[in-house]
Amino acid sequence: MLKIAVLVSGGGTNLQAIIDSIARGDITDTKIAAVVSNNPGAYALKRAEEAGLTTKCISPRSFESRELFNQALTDYLVKSGADLIVLAGFMVVVPAQLISAFKNRIINIHPSLIPSFCGKGYYGLHVHEAALKRGVKVSGATVHFVDEGTDTGPIIMQKPVEVLPDDTPQILQRRIMEQAEWKIMPRVIDLIAHDRVHIKDGKVYISQEGD
Ligand code: GRF
Question: Could you tell me whether strands 138-145 and 155-162 are parallel, antiparallel, or unpaired per DSSP bridges?
């Protein structure tokens, strides 16, 4: 049984997609051990409570320094017994000690086709604003492992989504969530739960069922 901790900051639609996928049996052999938010007002926490999950708010504002926050977050996640950390709209720079405590065991969803529109400053609606400004005809979402860089870790899965002429950043954001994010994040978690995701020389390989 794969134990996951889901880290959130906002609306939590990706968290909801994971909860629903477990309930439907699209993700199997997986349990959400904890949902952690840096933001006490995150609607994602309500979704987690409604699903009967363990929730925890760890806010940087409750600590005297960033270092103390980073340590508290890392300590909590280590103690939670999670095997995998899922960043589902977590708007906090992931502490270095967390990355080393969970090497190749942290995944993130980014709302573009990496390496386009990613890296520092590309978060939330900024990603979709940049895609529309450049005039790309296709965008999408990427699930990747988290390393020390920003959106630089090994890519696990991507899904393209069409950009339409009248799109606003909000409309494109929603289409990418519906058509890509809410599908590939649950899919990747299920693959990891069944030990089908492997990294070799910085690249991800997905093995066939039963391999
Ligand atoms: C998503 O667009 C995700 O790609 C990005 O943050 C957003 C989170 O949305 N990393 P939600 O909180 O899951 O609704």
Answer: antiparallel
